[in-house]
From TrEMBL:
Signal peptide: none annotated. This is Acireductone dioxygenase. InterPro entries: ARD, ARD_bac, RmlC-like_jellyroll, RmlC_Cupin_sf. It comes from Azospirillum lipoferum. Fe(2+) binds at residues 97, 99, 103, 141. It is an enzyme of class 1 (oxidoreductase). HAMAP family: Salvage_MtnD. The record marks 102 as: May play a role in transmitting local conformational changes. The record marks 96 as: May play a role in metal incorporation in vivo. Its cofactor is Ni(2+); Fe(2+). Keywords: Amino-acid biosynthesis, Dioxygenase, Iron, Metal-binding, Methionine biosynthesis, Nickel, Oxidoreductase. Gene3D superfamilies: Jelly Rolls.
Length: 187
């Protein structure tokens, strides 16, 4: 289940806004220049689907986004607690960073939380199955896959040499709550 929480950057305890309404999430994020969409699979997608089946199921939406945002390649990544080096992978993206290209991710299954630092605010977007989020190049953000990661995403790339994270050096991420999927559902 996707949701959006908006904080002032100076206050990680009392959010200004919290909503799970997809239309409100899309609207608030669009106002901040961030693309959020809900996609529906064009073909049945079993839990065991391989990368080719995942890409086929969302082929039209993938092509539309590639054309609109000038992405040239996509891949499919599945992360679980069993993934090699998963703790280091989680830690790598927990510090605020930027990329030289848009970071666009579509969640096929599972969850993860993006924290986007914009205009003195932090927009926390918890993405779930069916969510497409694209963070503009140069926008400070971090990502928390949670203590028990489990998600499959389609990643979009603008350049063949891929996508590199450059730390901003700002320790802001440490002041904000970690992503706890079970707590998010209970709240
Ligand atoms: Fe990133």
């Amino acid at each position: 289940m996707s949701d959006l929480t908006v904080y002032l950057e100076s206050d990680a305890r009392r959010p200004e806004l919290r909503t799970a309404d997809p239309a409100l999430i899309t609207g608030h994020l669009a106002h901040a220049g961030i693309l959020f969409e809900r996609w529906t699979a064009e073909a049945p997608l079993p839990a065991s689907a391989d990368a080719d089946a995942v890409l086929a199921a969302y082929a039209a939406s993938i092509e539309r986004l590639k054309e609109a945002r000038r992405f040239c390649t996509v891949d499919v990544v599945r992360i679980t607690l069993q993934t090699d080096g998963v703790a280091a992978l989680r830690a790598k993206f927990l510090d605020e960073h930027i990329h030289e290209e848009d970071e666009a991710r579509f969640f096929v299954e599972g969850t993860g939380a993006f924290y986007i630092h914009l205009d003195s605010r932090v927009f926390r977007v918890v993405c779930g199955a069916g969510d497409l989020l694209s963070i503009p190049a140069g926008t400070p953000h971090w990502f928390d896959m949670g203590a028990k990661p489990r998600f499959t995403t389609i990643r979009f790339f603008s350049r063949p040499d891929g996508w590199v994270a450059t730390p901003t050096g700002d320790a802001i991420a440490a002041r904000f709550p970690f992503f706890q999927p079970d707590a998010a559902r209970a709240a």
